[in-house]
Amino acid sequence: MEIKVLKDILSANDQIAQENRQLLDSNGVFTVNVMSSPGAGKTSLILETIRRLKGAVQIGVIEGDISSSIDAETIGKEGVPVIQINTGGECHLDASMTYRALSNLPLQDIELLFIENVGNLICTAEFAIGAHKNLVISSTPEGFDKPLKYPLMFTVADIVLINKIDLLPHVNFDTDAYKKTVKNLNESVEIFEVSCTTGQGIDRWLSWLQNQLRNR
Amino acid sequence: MHELAITQALIGLVKEHAEKVGAKKVERINVVVGELSGFVGQSVEFYFDQMSAGTIMEDAKLSFKTIPMAGRCRDCSKEFDIKEMDWTCPSCKGSSIELVRGNELFVESIEVD
After folding, report:
1. pTM score
2. Domain, as residue range, for A141
3. ipTM of the shown complex
4. Which of A13, A75, A124, A172 suits a disulfide with A92, CB 3.0-4.6 Å?
């Protein structure tokens, strides 16, 4: 006997992601899922953002890594609430891991939550976690062909940051070609160029964020 | 590594639907997979063999139907298959392409006893 199922394999995850979103909304927490390959600058961007918005915006962080709590310790030094998730081998955060972390954060005291996903351009794009916006960071030493190699990641992005633009004179990164490829995959995405080392372009990113917070 | 998580989710979904009809055994699971979904069938089969042991879906055949990637040109509306990651419209050579198929990942049906 054949039984029609017609159900997404990840529907259970999607359901929990929706519940996470409701929990975040009911506490007025604007949440950004930060994704990139390892070493592109996720932690650096979060740190820079915390330092610039200190006193103005209440920030919280969830750190996702396969192992270690190095990132959570670094972020914790800034005096913001932070929870480390160790995925124990899984290469992405999923909605239930995120839910457990959310349950341990003082959500009522947080306006802006960063969820730093595991460094990976593949399956982090497939598992919804309930965030309001997907941020993808590319860094110039990675080369400008990544959007074509990992198209799904760039189709789910709401905002893309090109980080390490201070290294442009030393690396082979065609910014125009990169932007064109990303825009072709995802017409509505916003792309900003930044350097977490020199601070170049960070103001534009911060004003995007503050705009989102005002409209939340 | 995410095939492990996908296999767990797959087994949970199949179990739910098989139990609903009181099935004794699941013989076949028909899965639809978009080319862009980053899903490695062989890897899922590997996990499935181990994780389904001792359950009602032990020895079930996993069948994958692959959906090729297809895009629609935003300039001329032509729909076409995207081959080898070439996101260029074959008709007008435009490069602004909307994905219309290729990121599916669902269980179409199960065959039970």
Report:
1. 0.90
2. 11-214
3. 0.85
4. A124
